[in-house]
Amino acid sequence: MEISPFIIFLAAIFTSNIVLTNFLGMCSFLSVSREIESSLGLGLAVFFVLTFTTAINFVVYHYLLIPLNLIYLQYIIFIIIIAAFVQLTELVIERFSPVLYYSLGIFLPLITVNCAILGVSLFMIIRNYSFIQSVLYGAGSGLGWLLAILALAGIRSRVKYKYVPAGLQGAGLSLIITGIMALAFIGFSGIVVIQ
Amino acid sequence: MACEIIQTVFIISVITGFLALLLVIAEALFVNYGECRIKINGKKELVVQGGGSLLSTLNDNKIFLASACGGRGSCGFCKCTISSGAGPLLPTEKPFLSEKEISDGVRLSCQVKVKQDLSIKIPEEIFNIRKFRAEVAKITDLTYDIKELTLKLVEPGTISFKAGQYVQLESPAYEKSRQSVQRAYSISSNPYQDDMIQLIIRRVPEGICTTYVFDYLKEGDKINFTGPFGDFFIRETEADMLFIAGGSGKAPIKSMIEFLDKIGSRRRMVYLFGARSTKDLYYTELFREYEKKLTNFSYVPVLSQPSEECEWKGRCGYIPPFIPEFLRDPVNTEAYLCGSPGMIDAVKKALLELGVPDNKIYFDSFA
User: Fold this and answer.
1) Is the pLDDT of residue B3 over 70?
2) Mutating which of B4, B90, B110, B114 best tests the A interface, going by the most A Cβ atoms within 10 A?
3) DSSP alpha helices (H): ranges in B197-332?
């Protein structure tokens, strides 16, 4: 695996967007995309948490779990680390930026269960990424998630004023929009693909 | 195999323990604000442990700001002016504050955390707010769905309030509700009787507090309340007064009229009371008596759905069309409204159209 970290970064944003190609992190993607403002806040928080937990998980995996022959514990350890990191982030944000803290509200602790974050950590292991590759993959996926939720929020803020058939209101239409967005993003896949 | 399980448990415990320790250290570093001083109105000073919300910190120190939602930031009652140390305005507060309030430094005390020394301003009346324990002296049926509750104060023994203010009655945990809840009710007795209060309570179907009062509370029982709260009280001017109330909205108006009678007011007063039908009318004799006692007071019930059998000789319909009849000098009239939000909106609109100034319309809405 000798893909340039920068290529991985770009691919994670566009062609292999974590939410639009792997359909990870869908729950908050659908529920917080009603307003652009809150989706931007959540997207930034996901980006931040994703980048740092990927780095921490890389170190823990390669320097703790492999030497101790504990690879089978990776899921539970990754989840614990993500949860602890989100808690820590919450404490820091509350202390230094109460405004951001209150605008994120319940979504900040909910990042813990955003499966995109665990997904990125697991992909980095399956794909045998180096440290730099992993961190850029994490950052790229975070930005990709941010981009996708902003796009969906933008579309939904316009759909709000349009007539939508009863059966399609809410999550139904959002899923269709997401599907079409996924098609559009896959259109970039001629440039580069990471598996 | 057994060895592997023990090893797994051990490793996970070590890692989790380490992370927990890290979080505890972080919490001690970031969330501990130490002792803070709260200066109130430039006079009183409290030394408190930082970290909690201003509302709960003040409550712990027996200063009760009004709060109906219990600090969740959804009622907007717990406003207070903070001149220093509050930190930036939060998005959770904005919807409750006007531009002027924001520039004056008004904040929701339940959203402000005590992180450093604070200097705040609260109305002097707040110091009168206490938690009271009272004995139910009498429960009277006023109509089929409205009861009058007479509470004799036990601890503390007297209360000081302004006619028109309300208290928050606390229903304890009982069969229908596992939590104790607080609900606001206006005081219907007058401030001269300071060893008791009376409340007028209309049954709310499925209401936690009203069900408790209607079905469980008996004479001789003890009950708690906090108060008095509210800025719905008589302004001391010579202007004409127009009272408009509906349903159980009679309580604060009754308190006001009794008070005006005690001080021998000669102001011109009209009281329009809206009800559905004759069976919703109560205290009619009492107000007819005040018509005789007070020099310039008239009581006008208006029924929206008078039943056919009884021949109602009074006015029928909704209140707004009857207002002009009793309005002598709109610019020089104070209106005191009490009732449902819908009624208040309709009446307020009518009053504004008739030329009553916005700043002379006072209301207490049962939101």
Assistant:
1) yes
2) B90
3) 208-211, 250-262, 284-293, 323-326
